[in-house]
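dumping this here so i dont lose it
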């Protein structure tokens, strides 16, 4: 389908349009947190930001626009209620609202103790992409600032758990004593990362974090290697409990996150039951699933 995909995160605003000539995409730092901080008429601020993005994208004015992520949150354009688990992977459980004839806002889903906004479209995209090749039951891992583990059974998401892995890495490397001995922008160091994963096996993680400092002070390790060690420790701590389960695993990620999570999974012995999925187009694919279900506006 020809439409505009919008992923409105807490820190970033992304628009993607795929047509016969390829993919066009823009990304800015006008995420939900920044827009909410401006005050004033929230809907008007979001509308103006979207209109500028669409103009920059150069897409036709009559194409549908599907918004997911934080645009439906308390920080967003308009707050929508969560869908409740179980959440059907054919999109029939989704909560959505038309903001106008062109613009469609999609909400997330929640359990009694956890919630998702944005990853619901990724999950629908996984199901649509893999189809009958999906393992069932399974655990799907969607890495990010707040990594999501989704429990999937019989065509439904039946459980969700959030891990603050990415946010913890950012906080520790910028706002803790570890900022003096880590370089968050350094290239990936596979050996140091593997050492971090192994340290996570020993647990608890709070007892291993300070090693990112002692490795430099006592062992002379550079800040670049210590950042990879810390990343391995945090990702390893997230994935290590899965070694005590037997269900198939799926990791949907791209770029540096794909490298980190797949490396940690291999180090933990999870590779034999692991499927890796490229995540770049999953949000748009899931939004298309929803768009096909919506009634046509006359």
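and the seq i came up w/
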């Amino acid at each position: 389908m020809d439409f505009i995909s919008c992923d409105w995160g807490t820190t970033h605003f992304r628009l993607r349009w795929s047509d016969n000539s390829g993919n066009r995409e823009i990304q800015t730092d006008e995420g939900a947190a920044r827009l909410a901080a401006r005050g004033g008429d929230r809907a008007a601020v979001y509308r103006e930001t979207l209109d500028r993005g669409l103009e920059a994208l150069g897409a036709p004015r009559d194409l549908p626009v599907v918004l997911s992520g934080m645009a439906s949150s308390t920080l967003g354009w308009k707050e929508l209620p969560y869908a409740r688990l179980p959440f059907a992977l054919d999109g029939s459980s989704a909560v959505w609202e038309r903001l106008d004839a062109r613009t469609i806002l999609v909400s997330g889903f929640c359990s009694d103790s956890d919630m998702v906004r944005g990853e619901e479209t990724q999950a629908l995209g996984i199901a649509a992409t893999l189809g009958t090749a999906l393992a069932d039951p399974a655990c799907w891992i969607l890495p990010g600032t707040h990594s999501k583990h989704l429990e999937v059974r019989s065509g439904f998401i039946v459980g969700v758990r959030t891990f603050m892995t990415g946010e913890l890495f950012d906080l520790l490397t910028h706002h803790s004593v570890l900022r003096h001995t880590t370089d968050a922008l350094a290239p990936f160091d596979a050996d140091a990362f593997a050492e971090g994963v192994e340290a996570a096996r020993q647990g608890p993680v709070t007892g291993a974090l300070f090693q990112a400092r002692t490795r430099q002070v006592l062992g002379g390790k550079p800040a670049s290697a210590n950042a990879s060690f810390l990343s391995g420790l945090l990702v390893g701590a997230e994935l290590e409990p899965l070694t005590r389960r037997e269900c198939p695993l799926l990791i949907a990620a791209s770029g540096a996150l794909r490298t980190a999570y797949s490396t940690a999974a291999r180090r933990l012995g999870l590779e034999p039951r692991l499927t890796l999925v490229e995540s770049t187009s999953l949000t748009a694919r899931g939004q298309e699933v929803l768009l096909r279900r919506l009634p046509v506006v006359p």
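The chain has a mean pLDDT of 95.
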